[in-house]
Amino acid sequence: MKKLLSIVLVLLLTLSLMTGCGSEGQAEVPKGGQEEKPSEGGQEEKPSDGETPAIAKENIKIGVIHIGNPADGSGYTYAHDQGIVEMQKEFGLSDSQIIRKNNVNDSDPTETETAILECIEEGANIVFGTSWGYMDTMEALAKEHPEVIFSHGTGYKSNDTNFNNYFGRIYQARYLTGIAAGLKTKSNLIGYVAAMGKDNSEVTGGVDAFAMGVYSVNPDAKVYVKVTNSWFSPEEETNAAKALLAEGCDVIAQHCDTPNPQLEAEKAGVFGIGYNSDMSKDAPKATITSAVWNWGAYYTWAVGQVLDGKWSSENYYGGMKEGLIAISPLNESIAAEGTAEKIAEAEKSMLDGTFNVFDGVIETNDGSTVGEEGKTLDDATITGGINWYFKTVVEK
Q1: pLDDT computed for residue 50 by the predictor
Q2: What is the pLDDT of residues 14-58, one digit of tens each?
Q3: Which residue in 199, 275, 280 sits closest to 237, CA to CA?
């Protein structure tokens, strides 16, 4: 009888232990509820459904693919790298945990693939690709390396496992800088150096938002666009600015990587609107303000998600409210009178939701209209479907 009782007790104990186990004998991970913290001591936590395993802070390595060189000290790559530096400081990561690949030509898939694979070979858990042209290569490598997170800046592709896309509502800042340009121009001709033309919604949406800002304070002004057909081409950016100046433009704005258009504006004794980083340090006598990115808002958030085991392939699209985009301090010594007040008024209405750049019916330069009264174009349309120019925009 004692022997039989012992067997029963053993069976009951075994059943009670199995109750707290999953189907594979692993302890179940709570879903939802309490916030999970990054794991300690190099141990990785099991993720919730659709999320990646947590990575201990000392084990994370981050690869970054740049089209230019952060050492240039201004412009697109510099702005991205400043965001990486901000994230690194936030989490106290060592320099050895950041793997930078600079001057990677985004129109060369082989060069792009080599740079990304080198990051993976050096132990990268997550790779950020900062330029449009890296998109297809990152998509392919994400399938081949499911253990690595791929995060692509600009563009539009992603998957449902380990590849996402990040960008933001830069058109908000574009509109505000358009106000500064529209109030400053005397010739009513404003130049805009654009990396791509109407087939690229990122650039075209920015041009349109800028022109709408101009139009809101100066309906007589026109925006002349000169396209370089390159995301990074210092020589072409310079030449485009010179061509616009020859047309009589007295304010030069830009969607291109270098501060060269601002430098040309300063040489010509006119004014400019910078992009990516505050370009007043490059051309202090010309740059009124700049549409700027604070990429640290995204990089800090994304790496925090990885450390917490909460990263998912959901795309990221932030704006002024998230601190991702802004305009640089106004150069009051050269800005037109009343500029600060007009910008502050528009910014306030954007932040409180009473005004959106792409509200209502919008007239295009071919006489057609887009949008509907009482409605705002959605983010998907703005980032992936704009292939029209606002009515005051002329491509030269």
Answers
A1: 55
A2: 333 333 333 232 222 222 222 333 333 333 444 444 577 899 999
A3: 275
Phi, psi of 111, rounded to the nearest 5 degrees: -65, -40
Strand partners of residue 62:
98, 126
Domains contained in the chain, CATH given: 57-168+295-318 (3.40.50.2300), 170-292+325-395 (3.40.50.2300)
Distance CA 102, CA 66 (A): 5
In contact, 251 and 184? CB cutoff 8 Å: yes
Helices (H), 145-229: 170-184, 201-217
User: What is the per-residue pLDDT for 379?
Assistant: 86
Geometric angle at alpha carbon 54, from 49 and 57, rounded to 5°? 165
pLDDT at 42: 38
Copy the structure tokens of residue 393: 């925009």
